[in-house]
Amino acid sequence: MTPPRGRFKIFLGYAAGVGKTYQMLEEGQELRRKGVDVVIGYFEPHGRKDTIARTEGLEAVPRLKLEYRGAMFEEMDTEAVLRRKPQVCLVDELAHTNVPGSPRLKRWQDVHVLLDAGITVLSSLNIQHLESLNDQIWQMTGVRVRETIPDWVVDQADELVVVDVTPRALRHRLERGVIYSRDKADKALENFFTEQNLSALREIAMRHAAHEIEEKLSAEEQVIAEAGAQSSASAVSSRRKECILICIDERPSSAVLIRRGKRVADYLRADCLAVYVSPDSALSSLSQEAREAVERHLGFARNLRIQTAVVEGEDVASSLVKFARAQNATQIFMGRSLAKSWGTRLRGSTLNRVVRLARDMEITIVAERRR
Amino acid sequence: VPNTRPSPEELLRRIEAEERQAVRGRLKIFLGYASRVGKSHRMLDEGRRRKQRGQDVVIGAIQSRLGPDVEPLTGTLEVIPCLKVRMDGKEEEVLDVVAILRRHPQVCLVDELAHDNPPGSRNPKRWQDIKELLDNGITVVTAVNLQYIAEQQDAIEKITGKRAKQTAPEAFIRSADEIVIVDVPPEDVQQGEPANPADTRRFSELRELALLLAAEVVDEQLHQSLKLQGVEMFLGSQERLLVCITPRSNARRMLESGRRIADRFHCGFLAVYVRQPGLSEADQKLVESHLALARELCAQLHVLDAKDSIAAILELARAESITQMFVGHSLISRWRELLFGNPLDRVIQAAESMDVRIFPHPAP
């Protein structure tokens, strides 16, 4: 018999040093005082004295030591935590990527294993690691965040709690050397930790947390509505559900398109579909490079829980529109590069033709993210 | 990041702001969505930390019902006791502004921002007491419950069925130099009570409201600080949506869809119409009804006069940091006639930092 899934709580911050880990440990301590069996699965001390002091008295499950390219790395020992079987496990830095050779690729996958085993997990996360915000954050801050976490993992959390301090207070902490060592702090203050960057990230974190609450409330409402009278003409269900079709190509900008389309779909509670149009469904007419790129994009979309399809057709515009119609799509998302480069003076650009052919649909040309 | 040269007026504004900043105390507010989320605790903790760092901190007002767990926080801090005034057999506490001004600390902690003083007090409201301290160069750290903000009362009543008697104006809260959201899950607020799903829902709704208000304040401050520095920078930390209205566009669909998205994203919602000379009476009527609908749906409406309508719309979109622009087919086909080159390409290329969404014609 499988145990009921553990509860999943995330402490969400907008930058390193806001106090996510501290608050997670604080809650761990409080639970321990109440007699709950709490262990630390993974904790990143970063040399912060105040935070380290909060671990006192909490049992830490020894980490897994792994060798990679001649260096030693430490990861959470998920299997050891399972054997120890605590009620609650604290796992720092949810977006972390495990070193190659670890049982699982990402820490959030380790967390899922614990949750499935009925263990409650408290974890920490910074907003910039959210996949759907990757382009926006790059545009704002100039930093391309490499470690990302799919939005649906965060959506599944039972609780998302904002850990807030003002950027001014955070910069003071940096200046005092609480967060990083002196030289690293100076660099951080000049680059990522500018007051403006921090404010923008903070605003996004607040908005995201508000959005998650709203989603949960609306999901509950739906359950209540469905459990109630089976009124077929309910106002909610009578509106045709929106469906967004994302039209990708082999260019790197397709990733931007996928993230943006998914983000809008999530907000509209719409279905989402990614499609590539090719003369042959096996993609064999493409160069190896292009084929790999397309496959990478399709894989990326599936990772974000977007359905994907390869549509066969010589003429991109007409095949796309035909497919969109068959799928009852209400909106087509296209990239700017696609709109521009496929254009020919005689036939009109693909975009122009899609617009003309899909007169009953909405077509969104997605912003170019650049700095 | 393009640096634009500030105009003389802007420079003056900047200098004035700096001067104000130099004499005025700073206002820092801890905002929570209910009582017992831990606002006062955070406020006291901040006081303790500041004291540790050598600042001169006093407590001006503190709730008496906080319980013994704040003892270690308050223990080391000097208290300037509130004045006690008897009103209708009840004892009311009033911030002792005179005593605080005389003592003149660097930082004063004042709990319960939204508090009415009894008649005959120096100021009718506690936030006015705080303003006096700020004007005299004392930094104030305070705490407020969302449910006691005047402008939020309609929204609060929808959720809780109740309105607060004692409130503070939202403008004062928005004027804070720093605002901090104190966020905890509803279960933590309900501790000790049997969890009632309806209560949990209400708390969640209040919590969302508080987060959105804090986000708005942060957004305002961000744009102000960029403006003061003369930096024009597109941040896109908040979605902003612009609907372009023309006589023949499917304005109803665009505006309704825009409103719905704006509600979901909790974002700015704008509409623009560029006046066209020589419209037929029928078209003029259509325009009027579109504009009426835009107003009805609470779009921030811009009616412009311009020769080159595309350029005018794009300029507005950039100035307003628009992230999503809605245009109709009809707009495009009209532009086509204007020999500006391929009009669709022109819009797409010029509006490259925005999503452009093209809407179908209205059904004939």
Write the SSE topology:
The complex is a heterodimer of chains A (371) and B (364).
Chain A: E1 8-13, H1 20-33, E2 38-42, H2 49-53, E3 59-60, E4 64-68, E5 71-75, H3 78-84, E6 88-91, H4 107-116, E7 120-126, H5 134-141, H6 151-155, E8 159-162, H7 167-175, H8 182-190, H9 195-227, H10 235-238, E9 243-247, H11 253-268, E10 271-278, H12 288-303, E11 307-312, H13 316-326, E12 331-334, H14 336-341, H15 350-357, E13 362-365
Parallel strand pairs in A: 1-7, 1-8, 2-3, 2-6, 6-7, 9-10, 9-12, 10-11, 12-13
Antiparallel strand pairs in A: 4-5
Helix pairs in contact in A: 13-15
Chain B: H1 8-23, E1 27-32, H2 39-52, E2 57-61, H3 71-74, E3 78-79, E4 83-87, E5 90-94, H4 97-103, E6 107-110, H5 126-135, E7 139-145, H6 153-160, H7 170-174, E8 178-181, H8 186-189, H9 197-228, E9 240-245, H10 251-265, E10 268-274, H11 281-296, E11 300-304, H12 309-319, E12 324-328, H13 329-336, H14 343-350, E13 355-359
Parallel strand pairs in B: 1-7, 1-8, 2-3, 2-6, 6-7, 9-10, 9-12, 10-11, 12-13
Antiparallel strand pairs in B: 4-5
> Radius of gyration of chain B from the CA trace?
26 Å
Unreliable segments of 5+ consecutive residues of chain A: 232-238, 339-347
State the strand order across the main sheet of chain B: 3-2-6-7-1-8
Structure summary, number of beta strands of chain A: 13
First CA to last CA of chain B: what distance? 47 Å
The portion of residues forming beta strands of chain B comes to 15-25%
Helix content of chain A: 40-55%
Q: How many runs of DSSP E, i.e. beta strands of chain B?
A: 13
What is the mean predicted local confidence, pLDDT of chain B? 86
Strand order of the largest sheet of chain A: 3-2-6-7-1-8
Q: What sequence of helices (H) and strands (E) makes up the elements of chain A?
A: EHEHEEEHEHEHHEHHHHEHEHEHEHHE
Biggest sheet details of chain B: 6 strands, parallel
| Silhouette of chain B | elongated
- Oligomeric organization of the protein chains: heterodimer
Rg value of chain A: 24 Å
Number of helices of chain A: 15
Q: The biggest beta sheet of chain A, please?
A: 6 strands, parallel
**Secondary-structure element string of chain B:** HEHEHEEEHEHEHHEHHEHEHEHEHHE
Strand percent estimate of chain A = 15-25%
